[in-house]
Design a protein that fits this description.
Layout (H helix, E strand, L loop, with lengths): L5 H23 L25 H15 L4 H20 L9 H19 L5 H30 L4
Helix pairs in contact: 1-2, 2-3, 3-4, 4-5
Length: about 160
């Protein structure tokens, strides 16, 4: 990845801050973590289609959001890794935004259930957790992310 400009670093910081704020709000109503989670902040995972600065912005935002909402350390690490992998996949599919929401859904659907099982003791529930986490990701990344893409595309020039 090329060196980021000051504008791109600032954009990444704004994306991280927005991710944290939206996750914090979802946490207030019990949707930021657990077996059933619909993080509105995950709609931002469509942004790597438009700017490379969204990849570190989303990752840092997820790390901070997970810490601030009281996630266990391994959840901070592996949940944020899922976000990073999803953001990289979205960036790779930036030419086809109608498909770019898929990598964060897949990454979180596969990784987060293992975190919930091993860190929080939800043993032998991978299929159930994959279904519930995956459904939340479909809502956040698929539906909300695609709805967000059109208006944001007009505001953020693609790089």
């Amino acid at each position: 990845m090329k060196n980021l400009s000051a504008k791109q670093i600032a954009m990444g910081g704004m994306i991280a801050a927005l991710y944290v704020a939206l996750t914090w709000l979802a946490n207030l109503v019990g949707l930021a973590s657990g077996a059933v989670q619909v993080r509105v902040s995950e709609a931002l995972t469509i942004l790597p289609c438009l700017t490379v600065s969204a990849v570190p912005g989303l990752t840092i935002g997820c790390v901070l959001a997970n810490i601030l909402t009281g996630c266990a350390p391994w959840d901070v690490v592996f949940g944020s890794l899922a976000t990073l992998l999803g953001a990289l996949g979205t960036r790779a599919l930036r030419k086809t935004p109608q498909l770019a929401w898929i990598p964060p859904v897949v990454a979180n659907t596969v990784i987060v259930p293992f975190v919930l099982m091993w860190v929080y003791g939800a043993q032998d529930a991978w299929w159930f957790l994959a279904l519930t986490v995956g459904a939340g990701e479909l809502i956040s990344c698929g539906l909300l992310g695609l709805l967000l893409y059109g208006p944001v595309k007009k505001m953020i020039p693609a790089d």
